[in-house]
Specification:
mainly alpha, 79% helix, elongated, 0% strand
């Protein structure tokens, strides 16, 4: 699959779904440890430590954690997927199915992290309430879930794109391209989220556009990857 096949409404090949299931399954096993740990540290341990030392608590620890940790996690995981490309092709599957599987896996992981956003705010709110602290939760949790999904997707796709450029063109080009493939998309979308007051439809549309551009760029680079003795 590529953006083209989606645009024409053609069904994704079974190889795409098999590879997506394999990649997401591996990641899900890691998430089974990472997500509870993130919730414990941000909504349980951090408030307890602050209460113990009797210092002023921020409005929310969870808002900071959920803005940074999911992105860092998916960036690393997505970048590592390039290590499976040669094996994928060796089993007779195509570059298109691999690119589609990576994108779908990134979006699936972003959705998992987005769905725990309200869970974290609920747990943190209960903990803050027990200490008698004011809790700064978002007024619109649905919008918080959407922005979390888009932000994490941008981080993941930026990681996948940067890694495959490095794989295809070498380390020098990979490093030179980093400001465009990773730094700018991540920083610009994060700044848009932080500065938008309020975060509205136009901001969401811009972030969706960034996700689409990163997806198209990633698919284009993967389709041009040369693997010795194999063609897709």
């Amino acid at each position: 699959m590529s953006a083209t096949s989606l645009a024409h409404g053609r069904p994704l090949p079974s190889a795409t779904w098999r590879t997506t299931g394999w990649l997401f399954g591996r990641t899900l096993r890691i998430l089974a440890v990472v997500v509870p740990l993130l919730l414990l540290l941000a909504t349980g341990l951090a408030p307890a430590v602050v209460a113990y030392f009797r210092v002023e608590a921020p409005g929310s620890f969870w808002s900071f954690a959920v803005a940074q940790a999911p992105g860092v996690f998916i960036l690393v995981i997505a970048a590592m997927t390039v290590a499976h490309l040669a094996t994928h092709l060796a089993f007779g599957m195509t570059r298109r199915s691999f690119a589609a599987a990576v994108v779908l896996t990134v979006l699936a992981v972003a959705a998992v992290f987005a769905l725990i956003v309200p869970v974290g705010y609920a747990l943190e709110g209960a903990h803050f309430g027990a200490y008698g602290w004011a809790h700064a939760a978002p007024a619109d949790l649905a919008l918080a879930v959407l922005t979390s999904f888009l932000r994490t997707a941008v981080w993941g796709l930026a990681g996948a794109l940067s890694a495959v450029i490095w794989y295809r063109f070498g380390g020098f080009v990979g490093v030179v391209a980093l400001p465009l493939t990773a730094v700018y998309p991540i920083v610009s979308t994060s700044m848009r989220i932080e500065r938008a007051t309020p975060f509205g439809f136009g901001d969401v549309a811009v972030m969706i556009g960034v996700v689409a551009l990163l997806t198209a760029a990633y698919a284009a680079v993967v389709l041009g990857v040369a693997v010795k003795g194999k063609a897709a």
